[in-house]
């Protein structure tokens, strides 16, 4: 069932015969946590740029399109 909250909070409704309806939380799922000793990749430049402050992103776009 789509609860409509996956985008903001990464939660969803789940149904099992044993437990009935439960709220799934991605952040609480041990299968989604990094495993000890697992290789971690360094973020790529595009990913780092996407995490920049909105003002910095806007300034970069304006400069790219020569609008400011």
Q: What are the SSEs and their pairings?
A:
Blueprint: H1 6-9, E1 11-16, E2 20-25, H2 45-50, H3 54-64
Antiparallel strand pairs: 1-2
* β-strand number: 2
Summed over residues and divided by their number, the pLDDT gives a mean of: 81
User: In oligomeric terms, what are we looking at?
Assistant: single chain
Gap between N and C termini = 47 Å
The secondary-structure element order is HEEHH
Biggest pleated sheet: 2 strands, antiparallel
Give the strand order, joined by hyphens, for the main sheet: 1-2
**Which geometry do the CA atoms define?**
elongated
What's the helix count?
Answer: 3
Given helix and strand content, the structural type is alpha+beta
Helical content, roughly?
25-40%
SS strand fraction: 15-25%
> Low-confidence runs (pLDDT<50, min 5 residues)?
none
Task: Give the C-alpha Rg.
Answer: 19 Å
Walk me through what this model shows:
With 68 residues, the chain is an alpha+beta fold. 31% of the residues lie in helices and 18% in strands. It is built from three helices and two strands. The chain has a two-stranded antiparallel ribbon with strand order 1-2. It is elongated, with a radius of gyration of 19 Å.
């Amino acid at each position: 069932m789509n609860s409509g909250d996956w985008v903001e909070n990464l939660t969803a409704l789940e149904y099992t015969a044993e437990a009935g309806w439960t709220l799934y939380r991605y952040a609480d799922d041990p299968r989604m946590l990094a495993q000890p000793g697992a290789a971690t990749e360094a973020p790529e430049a595009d990913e780092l740029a996407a995490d920049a402050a909105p003002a910095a992103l806007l300034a970069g776009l304006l400069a790219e399109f020569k609008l400011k």
